[in-house]
Amino acid sequence: MKLERAVATTVNLKVTTVIAIMVVEFLVVACVASVAANSQVYGSLQRSRDALLDQRNYLQGEANRLAVRISALQTQLDTVNSYLRDNDRALRDVETAMNRAQ
Fold this sequence. Notes:
The protein is mainly alpha-helical.
């Protein structure tokens, strides 16, 4: 009876130990999988960030290039508007002279 009880206790202890080891192994595997998944997510986010930074640099360059073109066009527009004002004054002077000549 004591021997049977001792054997049963030993078997129960071994089963408990095996179950405990299996639980620890499961937790380790779960942790490793979680770290791997987090690493993949982080890597994906890093690639997205790099792509967005590249796109931002390109867009900033385009904005600078367009600002230079706009500035040059504004200078040309200012010159043409100045010529128009001069032309309007000359036209007014000629029309005034024509009215006086009648």
